[in-house]
Amino acid sequence: MNTTAAALEAQVTVATIRHWCRMGAVAAVKTAGRWVIDTASLAHRITIGALKARKTAPKPVVYSIETMTAIGGNRWQRNGHDRVYINNWHEFAGLDLSYYGSGNISSASYRGECVSNSQGYKLLGSLDKVWYDTATGKLHGRFGPTESRVATQEEVWAHVVAGIRAAIAAL
């Protein structure tokens, strides 16, 4: 089998087939400057690739009471509402804060970069609450009174959602 036919069968590029031939991932010999590929070896390589793809398929993210409490949420039920509040939302956004004994911020970093204590305080105030509502099955957030120069409230919210999704996927 030539490289073009092998690429069609494996659903990869011809360059990938040539790379597999050079690396020995498939049994092949070069005759008159062209690769001749063993069909059984190619079929085995395709099977290996399919198994790897199946193993690395992302786990579906399911918002539920169990998953939200597993990542640190607190369940609250009152007046017909059933919610799970995420009080440590700043950790999911990538906001790391250290405090003095007085309660003031002593150091702050956002997504791995150092920011001033003032900007850390403003980032912390950019979202007031984050919760999962069991009735709607959705995450909700309420913007706070401040906005930082480092990131907008919408950017912080997007990082919170991405962090929560990553934490649930890691369960």
Explained architecture:
The protein has 171 residues and is α+β, with helices and mostly antiparallel strands. Helices cover 42% and strands 26% of the residues. The protein has seven helices and nine strands; from the N terminus they run H-H-E-E-H-H-E-E-H-E-E-E-H-E-E-H. The protein has a four-stranded antiparallel sheet. Strand 6 and strand 7 form a beta hairpin. Helix 1 crosses helix 2. It starts with a helix and ends with a helix. The mean pLDDT is 91.
Radius of gyration, CA atoms, in whole angstroms: 26 Å
Task: Tell me the helix content.
Answer: 40-55%
Strand order of the largest sheet: 3-4-8-9
Largest sheet: 4 strands, antiparallel
Beta-strand residue fraction: 25-35%
Sequence-ordered SSE layout with sheet pairings:
Elements: H1 3-10, H2 14-23, E1 28-31, E2 34-37, H3 39-55, H4 65-70, E3 74-78, E4 81-85, H5 89-93, E5 95-99, E6 105-110, E7 113-115, H6 117-125, E8 127-133, E9 138-143, H7 153-169
What features would you highlight for this structure?
7 helices; elongated; 171 residues; alpha+beta; three-stranded antiparallel sheet; 9 strands; four-stranded antiparallel sheet; 42% helix
